[in-house]
Amino acid sequence: MVKLMLALDVMDKNKALEIVKETSEYIDAIKIGYPLVLATDLKIVKEIKELSNKEIICDFKVADIPSTNEKIAKLTLQYADGIICHGFVGEDSVKAIQNIAKENNKKVIMVTEMSHPGAVMFMQPIANELAKLAKKLGVDGVVAPSTRPERLKEIKEIVGEISIISPGIGAQGGDLEKVLRILSNDDYIIVGRSIYNSESPKESAKMYKEKLKNNF
Ligand code: O7E
């Protein structure tokens, strides 16, 4: 079954903990990014891991020189099960993160093409090359857009067995039915606002889980 990753982009600690408690029976993984960590601190990652016992991926879209990437990865992977990085900074920068992740048995997920409209400007023209780099480096997952199913399909064909983490369903208007025809077991959709901003995050997470179970 395709997995459900909750993007927990709220900026209030109590709200974050509440949403995790409410939705945890329907979600497979939680993505924590800058909004929540900057509003609280990195220890929120540990707290949510302990509360939920789910896979926790830190979305810091790390994009620096190797030695700085290494420091960010070390700090993040003390608590998180995986970290998201950019590939456009080059092979050495991604490898630096992979080295830290391997020592700790953690995941590295690399962005190829992003889901927002502006990603067609600079990212889309190099996204297939980034996907090839992801495959060469053997990263644990790649990010590819649910908002452009034809691009999602192309990137999936390039990376083969590597798992896809796909944002864009819900608030960004991605078509879940089309996306589910492309994704396979152990790929993920990422859903944020249409769960945490809905009247009932629990019901919304349940609805997505059921759609994934029934393959729409
Ligand atoms: O649109 P939402 O509210 O469902 O949230 C989507 C989440 O996925 C949000 O955290 C955003 O930062 C993230 N995201 C994208 O929306 N598009 C991308 O191309 C990439 C990401 C992302 O998470 O990158 C790393 C996986």
TrEMBL record:
Belongs to the OMP decarboxylase family. Type 1 subfamily. NCBIfam families: PRK13813.1, pyrF. One of its GO terms (molecular function) is orotidine-5'-phosphate decarboxylase activity. Keywords: Decarboxylase, Lyase, Pyrimidine biosynthesis. InterPro entries: Aldolase_TIM (IPR013785), OMPdecase (IPR014732), OMPdecase_arc (IPR047595), OMPdecase_AS (IPR018089), OMPdeCOase_dom (IPR001754), RibuloseP-bd_barrel (IPR011060). Homodimer. Residues 3-208 form the Orotidine 5'-phosphate decarboxylase domain. The gene is pyrF. SMART domains: OMPdecase. This is Orotidine 5'-phosphate decarboxylase. GO terms for cellular component: cytosol.
